[in-house]
Amino acid sequence: MTIRLREAWTSLVKAEDYEAHMADAGQAQANANLVVEYLRLQPTEPGATLLFVGAGTGQMFDFAPPSLLLPFDTTFTDINPEYLHRLAARLGLVEGLRHRELLDDVEDSRLRRGFKLVLGVLVLEHVDWRRAVATMCRLAEERAFVVIQENPPTLATAITLNRPIIGTMNVFRDCSPVLIPRSEVEAEFRREGLSPRYFAETRCRRQENAGPRLREKDPPDLTSSDFGRNCPHFVPKAPFLPQA
Ligand SMILES: C[S@@+](CC[C@H](N)C(=O)[O-])C[C@H]1O[C@@H](n2cnc3c(N)ncnc32)[C@H](O)[C@@H]1O
Predict the structure, then answer these.
(1) Would you say residue 238 has pLDDT above 50?
(2) What is the CATH number of domain 3-236?
């Protein structure tokens, strides 16, 4: 990770500018949908420990009810304390929600293993991503889920420059996040011991194999299968069957 990108996130990008940018692009809503869908399609048991690395301000909870986390024991990390305060304020609105926010660097984490599921939403592009993947794999006891940015081939920059950029988000003109090909992310997770699954595709294949009765009764959910195609989650290399 270059100094500038780290500096951007620790001291230059104001939370309100980041949030305005993400809301404007529809990305905060998209992130919320992806996490909700993931937890719906790959449920994890009540009481499970969830870790969100590079969690930011928790803007996704403006679009997904934070109460969705009530069954879990959740930890959120970031390198910007102001973002984490904002996140804590959002989650604090829900009584009974078990959450803690920690300043922690995903490239060199001080956390100990013990999280059932580790989620990284739009973080890898902003850090030394191989180190971040190593951290996620070290901390995840069962699985990991990532959302990475993929641009259409015609779009060269990570931040779309053909619309106005809000306030301090302009810093990314000078220190652009680096998009990572999905194949490289998958290979790195594999190297660290977790293999990729596009669970919704598997789910649809299983339904197709199950014959017409099941297909009629329980048709593949297109939103889910699009989602599953785009966002890998990573599981131990041992055989794993997603729950249909
Ligand atoms: C594009 S934002 C994504 C935030 C949030 N996950 C979301 O989807 O809105 C990237 C986040 O990664 C955080 N970040 C950058 N470098 C980091 C590092 N080395 N360790 C942990 N978090 C980091 C930033 O502060 C920022 O909150």
Answers:
(1) no
(2) 3.40.50.150
